[in-house]
Amino acid sequence: MGFFSKNNKIAGWMSTSFQSDGICVVHVARHSSALPTVELLEFFSFAEPLAVASLEKMAKAIHADRYQCTTLLSLGDYQILSVDAPTVPPEELKAAIRWRLKDMLDYHIDDATVDVMDIPVDKNAPVRTRSMFAVAARNQLIQQRQLLFAQAKAPLSVIDVPEMAQRNIAQLIEPEGRGLALLSFGAEGGLLTVTYSGELYLSRHIDIALAQLEQADEVQRTESYDRITLELQRSLDHFDRQYHFITLSKLVLGPMGEAGAGLLQYLAANLYLPVDTLNLEAILDMSKVPDLRQVTLQQRFFLTIGAALRHEEKSL
Fold first, then answer.
1. Other CB atoms within 10 Å distance of the CB of residue 11
2. What stretch of H or E contains 251?
3. What is the C-alpha separation between 133 and 313, in angstroms, rounded?
4. How far is it, in rounded angstroms, from Cα 78 to Cα 89?
5. Residue 170: what are its φ and ψ, rounded to 5°?
6. CB under 8 Å, gap of 24 or more: what pairs does 126-131 form?
7. d(CA 289, CA 38)
8. Cβ atoms within 10 Å of 178's Cβ, excluding its own
9. Which residues contact 142 (CB under 8 A, 6 or more apart)?
């Protein structure tokens, strides 16, 4: 199974993500002429979320066998790298990418599961140098995740990564003809993505967890703000140089609750881009799960919702 493998057995997606204290489960129905509807939103509290017994209990409770399932890796479970696209036939692409990755991983390439995503080029450029994202994770981790779902009798079609989940949300708020920077924070740290026309162009992990932005000490909070601002400035400057044909419209902060207010104010004063906050209620139909109107729940389920908004990737 690759990260972006296909399975058309069941329409729609039910996504799961594993947090330190339990399992998030979301099912979203996408509609062509209306807002995507959150049909199911559950958090199952477990001391050992990645245990077979925990996942089996969750799967039985929601009848997981009715859904086509995807699960998210955690930020530390994989690497996502930008590489030059090799000039080889499509059937040789993944093998060529593996060769390029062999000196970029801290483990042997034979121990890696690898998948790729294209980064579209400027159609008006005279010379089109292509880049690609390569996603790599240890075979052992992927196999363990597959085995976990199989033993729990939960049908697993896709193993996905947070960057693509966040891309799915960005697609719903992108202004036509302009790019969008989206920044979210969780227990594992921050995730910055830059998207344009529904495609992922840049991603950065920021080693600052949401808890660091929620702490009472003002000096420590300001230090975190400084580090985030510096990383954003470097990343956005790099993006402008690399993709000069894309104009960014703004930076949007994912749901953060009270912790987001201070960061929003700080970034607005120190970045050249306009800065805004995202309320998922503006882009999702929450009528079946009204509790999701709480910002704290939007933050907890943010990436899991994004994974449930998945659509099939183009085959490379």
1. 9
2. strand 248-253
3. 13
4. 26
5. -60, -35
6. 129/84, 130/84, 130/85, 131/82, 131/83, 131/84, 131/85
7. 7
8. 13
9. 1, 113, 159
H helices of the chain, in order, are: 52-62, 93-101, 139-151, 162-171, 210-214, 218-242, 258-270, 295-308
- Alpha-carbon gap, residue 18 to 162, rounded angstroms: 12
Phi, psi of 184 (to 5 degrees): -125, 160
Model confidence, pTM: 0.92
What tokens appear for 107 in the block? 């483990």
- Beta-ladder partners of 18: 23
Terminal-to-terminal C-alpha distance of the chain: 15
Cβ-based burial of 31 (10 A; exposed 0-12, middle 13-18, buried ≥19) = exposed
- Please choose, from the candidates 239, 228, 294, the residue with its C-alpha nearest in 3D space to the C-alpha of residue 264: 228
How far apart CA 91 and CA 68 sit, in angstroms, is: 27
Residue count of the chain? 316
CB 20 within 8 A of CB 297: no
pLDDT, average across residues 224-253: 96
Distance CA 181, CA 197 (A): 12
Q: 30 or 5: whose pLDDT is higher? A: 30
Q: Which two tokens stand for residue 109?
A: 């390439």
Span 193-230, pLDDT tens digits: 999 999 999 999 999 999 999 987 899 999 999 999 99
Q: Which residues contact 85 (CB under 8 A, 6 or more apart)?
A: 93, 118, 130, 131, 132
Give residue for tokens 């996408």.
Answer: 30
Give phi and psi for 197, each to the nearest 5: 50, 40
Residue 292 has pLDDT above 70, yes or no: yes
Question: Residue 189 in contact with residue 209, Cβ under 8 Å?
Answer: yes
DSSP letter string, 150-175: HHTT--EEEEE-HHHHHHHHHHTTPP
CA geometry: angle 41, 145, 24, nearest 5 deg: 15
pLDDT-derived band at 314 (thresholds 50, 70, 90) equals very low
